[in-house]
Amino acid sequence: MALTAMNATISSGSAGPRIKVLAIDDDPQSLELVADALAGDGLDILTADDPERGLELVRRERPAIVLSDLVMPKMNGMQLLSRILEVDPAIDVVLMTAHYSTDAAVEAIKKGACDYLTKPISIPVLRERIEKLADHALRRQRASESDVDLMDTCQFEGMVGRSPLMWEMFARIRRVAPHYRACAVTGPTGTGKELVAHALHKLSQAPGPMVVCNCSAVVETLFESELFGHVKGAFTGADSNKMGLFEYAHGGTLFLDEIGDMPLSTQAKLLRVLQNREVQRVGSLTARQVDVRVVAATNHDLRAQIAEKRFREDLYYRLSMVEIKTPALADRKEDLPLLERFFIQKFAAQYQKPVTCMTACAQILLARHPWPGNVRELENVIGHACMLTAGDAIDVADLPEYMRQGASPAPAAQPTGSGADLSFDGQERRVIEQALDRTGGNQVHAARMLGITRDKLRSKIKKHNLR
Q1: Angle at CA 244, nearest 5°, toward 240 and 245?
Q2: Long-range contacts for 57-62 (Cβ within 8 Å, ≥24 apart)?
Q3: Measured in whole angstroms, how far is the alpha carbon of residue 250 from the centre of its chain?
Q4: Do 223 and 263 contact (CB within 8 A), yes or no?
């Protein structure tokens, strides 16, 4: 029997989602028996009398269920099982054999088969097993479609979540945005505080720009000049007048990230600006009026810093008149599947790869992880996996090494490029190292595995100084 795709069960007037079942056997009579036995609403039966042709159908049609004979020429059922799961780990594979043994059945299950049937197959047993698998596949399909709908309804200004904590935060942002003059955004690192600031700015409908200042990256002696500006000759090196960030953000929003790292002397002047709505450039005697909304973010405990005399109490109360807290990912793990889907879509488009989902084993591993780096860590993990995977489903082997070992990323003592480096460049370096290691240094094969050109791979090898 040649390679066929028999719609053996399409009934007139039948509507709704259908489940594809592929039978692979070198015996045409067995194929005919399976096709007749499984005839019924909701199933499309595909058949192939050769394992290579069957594998071609798997790649093209992506059936939910595959029934395969164990003993076939060219490729046996165990080998075919491994090849099928490489294409799509979510496919349910049922092996059939005339020579049953407990050891062989256990080995098949360990390698990923979902069932092991003995020939001659009992028609009622076959129907019962396939019916259960088809029902499971249909539920999975509907859940996937539901997740797509949820993705649309659970996004808010670039943030994704359906947990009570996130809905509460979204509602607070909506209420606060039209009215605030100063707002504090607090929460652990990697929870999306800058996204909250962007949402506040956008929903405030302020006509001016949003300006970002990373307080931890500004040299202490230049803080005042950076925020308030300076006049020519105010200090050595001041060769011309300079507008500060407050003036630049006039009519808009100034986002002060990591405000807990701002020097005390600058905090005092910031408080004065918030109270009087005017700035005075360094070296100038004239004050300038500014209309600026200020969003200050920090992952520090500002009350503890106040007790240690490292943060001004009056500034804290001025900023925390309105406070929005971003929850840790560990406190809203019900959002994990949505976030996984969101980042898979993002990186699949960015890398131009056909990644659409994640295997159940990989999802379980991610669900058990404590996520000390929060959403930023999850984003880097998914980006790493999307870059590394050779198929359309992320599996455990595609995740960073520290995830596979069930550990948390170590702090900054780890060298750059290790699995614990949460920066994007660090993850990219690690992915390229793993691809080169897997292919024995073969750049052509490594580039194919990563889904990029060889020239692009060479560019990245040079960028990360790899050999």
Answers
A1: 145
A2: 57/3, 57/5, 57/22, 58/22, 58/84, 58/87, 58/88, 58/91, 59/87, 61/5, 61/20, 61/22, 62/20, 62/88, 62/91
A3: 36
A4: yes
Per residue in 282-328, pLDDT tens? 988 888 999 999 999 999 999 999 999 999 999 999 998 899 999 99
Instruction: Report d(CA 118, CA 387) in Å as an integer.
Output: 41
Measured between its terminal Cα atoms, the distance across the chain in Å is 51
3-state secondary structure of 126: helix
User: Chain-centre distance of CA 205, in angstroms?
Assistant: 30
pLDDT, tens only, 251-262: 999 999 999 999
Instruction: Give 274: exposed, middle or buried? Use CB within 10 Å, 0-12, 13-18, 19+.
Output: middle
Q: How many residues does the chain have?
A: 467
Summarised one tens digit per residue, pLDDT across range 173-197 is: 999 999 999 999 999 999 999 999 9
Name beta bridge partners: 323.
184
Look at residue 342 in the predicted model and tell me its pLDDT. Answer: 93
Give, for 289, the enclosing helix (H) or strand (E). strand 287-289
CB 374 within 8 A of CB 411: no
Residues 6+ apart with CB under 8 A from 334: 162, 163
Look at residues 280, 253, 290, 267 and name the one whose alpha carbon lies nearest to residue 220: 267
Q: Strand ranges (DSSP E) for 136-209?
A: 155-156, 159-160, 182-186
